[in-house]
Amino acid sequence: MKKKSIDIQHSCWNRLSSCDLRPATVFTPCFHSLTKPFNYCSICGNLLNFLCIWMNTVRDLKSEHCRGDSRVEVNNRKCRRCFYCVQLCPAKAIKLEKESIRIIPERCILCGNCITGCPHRAMTYQSDAGTVRNLIEANENVVACLDPAFPAVLDNVSPWGFSYALKALGFKEVWEGALGAELISAPYRKLLAKDTEKPVISSFCPVIVSYIEKYLPQLIDNLAPIVSPMIAAGRAIKKAKGEGWRVVYIAPCLARMGEMDDEENADAVDHVITFRDVRFMFAEAGINPRHVDEAPFDGPVPALGRIAPVIGGLNRSLGHSFDVLVGETSVAYGRRRVIAALNQLAKGSIQARFLDLVFCDGCVDGSFVERELSVVGRRQIVSRYAKSQFSPQTASMLQHTLRDFADVKITKEHKANVQKLPDPTEEQIRTVLKKINKLPPHNNLDCRACGYNTCREKAVAVVQGISEAEYCLPYLLEDSKRIYQQLEKSHRELQRSHQELEQAQFQLIRTEKLAALGQLAAGVAHEINNPLGTITIYAHILARSLEPDDPRKEDIDLIVSEANRTKEIVQGLLSFARETKLKPGETSINDLLEETLGLLVNQVLFQNIKIKKVFSDDLPMLFADATQLKQVFLNIMLNAAQAMEGKGSLTLTTTHEGGTIEIRIRDTGPGIPPENIGKLFNPFFTTKEKGTGLGLAISYGIVERHSGQIDVETELGKGSTFIITLPVDADAAGIITPAKGLAANQNINTGRRNHGTKKNSHH
Fold it and tell me: Cβ(646)–Cβ(610) under 8 Å?
């Protein structure tokens, strides 16, 4: 086969979850057939050994996120804070901190829900696979004990082929863990034969036992004082093989590891690994269970114990028939059903004699039974295997063999390990609910986004210190919205301040320019006026000295005409430079516009222009210089008429808003090019052939002296609108009213009299 480069994203590779430090794209090989001796996958051609050895080395490293007392660890680099693990955890053993999520070891019951449920694969577990591999490599005597659920894991692999593969891996013997179920059957039958006052809860499932010991200690006396099948099988193997043999239990779930860690069970099982770990070890060693020989199992051959991993399997292994019409035995499975049943039992609502409880859907649905097959299909596989291997002769031989293990310790004393947190007060709960805006009855959403079923449960967890109030999605959304609105408001205010600052800066620069130009214009006008007067006088003298029909008279008339035109320009310069003092009085803007129109409508330029007036009726009186404002309106209207070339429409609009009056003069001319907008109010800027370029500059100065503002809006081809804004309040306009002037004079006179009085008294 041609060797190919490693493609870790090839479709024949399955994601590895047991390697804590793996990159997000690392995958573990599948069980495709292998070509010796190079261990290339016969389907994809990828080299398997190199990647597997590298992964094994990495997995054995103890990174900072893999340290702790709990078997379950959180890789916070992968965690996306979806809180699905919190929702799945029945023991509330997951603590939400400011920057991370942490498992609380003493509260964890090792159900494995968080590992299998995490969509980001941020939950991992500490496996003994590395230690087991070292034992095998050291040629130690190691026995593999298979959980009775093992047939459900096999994908086109026979049970005996699986046994051969394990022995090829290095295990000296392979026993069926169903032996443990056979060993505990007799003690269960004996216990149930007694006339017990309390309902008996099976101790078959370590998750159930751990949950009761930690969170329902009042039910400890209900637990059957009998070990689990794993512990019974481990002790039986140790008895049969003697000292120097290690027992490795291959389990479908994580809770078996917690059971092994119990000091009371130290003599039973040395190490627990999962079916996932075994699959990885096969891939590392280049062993494909589909393409190996078969080898029989070691140890006694079980009978009905093989049915234990299915729902109600323990009850069936006792030889009892399960009937829903008989109330002496109750079978419950699944996280929610089991916890509900235990709570009801604690309240005295269940009267059954025997409760066969398993936390998941039987061991065939354990956290590490990774096979694309439904739970029902897995049950059928286990049932078919048990049925195919069962016979009366086998059962008879088993009973004889079990006598050899009569002295194996099967009993267990369950002890309380209470982990219940103190109940918070109602005031504390309401304080948290108020903080996250979830006070009942209207604001408690119970959306479960935080991982808790209700907002109240969330508040309780916050008070108990296992959650943070901020981990509430609706609260965060509302808070983010509030912050966004504040930022948006601040942005608008900052933008407005920036615009005002730019405008003030522009006006300041413009004012300085206008002042400099005014001084220059005054000097120029003065220098021009004197020679201009002389030219005009002597031109008139020359005109009178010529005969009426003298052809030179026409030239003299041209000199006089141009001199008069120059005189008008000089007058404009003087008007611009002097900034004529305001003579304010009460002024009606509407009346002022009417007067201005009266001066223009009879001119030829306005004959074909349609005048539209939209005047506000509630316009207040304005304290201003009517004569100068009329000049402003006159300049703008004349410019508009000239821009429209004597045709179109001119719209005058007045409005009152707040403390200002706004006057809009809109024409339907060609509009103003963008490059000319910034130059409109500059002195001497004009686009007209005979314009002086001072009309708008003078208008700008007049409006500015009234503390007003003049702006322009334009659109090419549609026209322009000049907007004049004037303050109504005389104080805002900086205009001294007659009353204020009189008061000021009185104050001055009073001051003089007082000053004189003091002087006289001094003398």
Answer: no
Phi, psi (rounded to 5 degrees) for 364: -70, -10
Q: What is the CATH number of the domain that holds 522?
A: 1.10.287
In which residue are the tokens 């298979």 written?
146
Per-residue pLDDT tens over the stretch 337-376:
999 999 999 998 888 888 889 888 888 888 888 777 788 8
Strands 719-727 and 709-715: antiparallel
Number of H helices and number of E strands within the chain? 24, 22
DSSP at 670? -
Q: What is the pLDDT of residue 637?
A: 92
Hey, which bits of 245-386 come out as E strands?
A: 245-251, 271-274, 329-333, 354-358
Q: Are residues 248 and 383 both part of a single domain?
A: yes
Asked if residue 178 belongs to a domain, the reply is yes
Same domain? For 278 and 221 the reply is yes
Q: Are residues 119 and 147 in the same domain?
A: no
DSSP state of 491: H
Contacts of residue 103, defined as CB under 8 A and 6 or more positions apart, other chains included, come to 68, 70, 72, 73, 74, 93, 94, 95, 114
d(C-alpha 538, C-alpha 541), whole Å: 5
Asked if residue 712 is part of any domain, the answer here is yes
Distance CA 582, CA 726 (A): 15
Q: What is the pLDDT of residues 29-74, one digit of tens each?
A: 333 333 333 344 433 434 444 444 444 444 443 333 333 467 898 9
Provide the domain limits for residue 443.
426-471
H/E stretch holding 89: none
Closest CA to 519 of 578, 594, 436: 578
Rounded Cα–Cα distance for residues 523 and 514 (Å)? 14
132 and 267, same domain (yes or no): yes
Domain boundary among 447, 471, 495: 471
Give the global pTM: 0.60
Six token digits for residue 412: 């267990």
* CATH at residue 95: 3.30.70.20
Total domains, the chain: 5
Q: Is the dihedral of CA 137, 140, 141, 142 positive or negative?
A: negative
| Domain-embedded: residue 15 | no
Q: 735 lies in a domain?
A: no
